[in-house]
Design goal:
Structural class: alpha+beta
Shape: elongated
Protein name: HPF/RaiA family ribosome-associated protein
Strand order of the largest sheet: 1-2-3-4
Largest sheet: 4 strands, mixed
InterPro entries: RHF-like, RHF/RaiA
Order of helices and strands: EHEHEEHH
Pfam families: Ribosomal_S30AE (PF02482)
Radius of gyration: 18 Å
Strand content: 25-35%
Number of helices: 4
Number of strands: 4
Helix content: 25-40%
């Protein structure tokens, strides 16, 4: 699983932050590593909300899964770690939900995961 970390100038940590984020993602999404191809992490400061007492950091996670559209989630918190932790939990649930849509209630493959040409061939048989 490929992990890319992007942080704006207001986020400190550099390479150690990127390494930490990669380790956390690999640990939290270990069960889904065959399904998830890439995760992009975007860490930004939210200065406008700091002055009003709101969250100061935002974490956006976007994942690319095999044969599926991208999934993106975000979370805001006072600290980068809290925003990241909340976002990774949202991402895990979203990916598991998306993966669940590929199977029906009897654990058979769903037509949602099949491209149109394969579905037409199956219908013709």
């Amino acid at each position: 699983m490929q992990v890319q970390v992007h942080a704006d100038d207001s986020i400190q940590g550099g390479e150690s932050l990127a390494q930490w984020a990669q380790e956390e993602i690999n640990a939290k999404l270990a069960r889904l590593k065959e399904y998830v191809v890439r995760v992009e992490v975007f860490l930004t400061g939210v200065d406008a909300l700091k002055s009003t007492g709101g969250p100061g950091k935002r974490c956006v996670l976007e994942t690319r899964a095999t044969g599926r559209p991208p999934i993106a989630v975000n979370a805001e918190a006072e600290k980068v770690k809290d925003a990241f932790s909340a976002a990774i939990e949202k991402l895990r649930r979203a990916v598991e939900t998306d993966l669940g849509k590929l199977k029906d209630k009897n654990l058979r493959e769903s037509v949602r995961g099949v491209d149109d040409s394969s579905a037409e061939n199956a219908a013709a048989v």
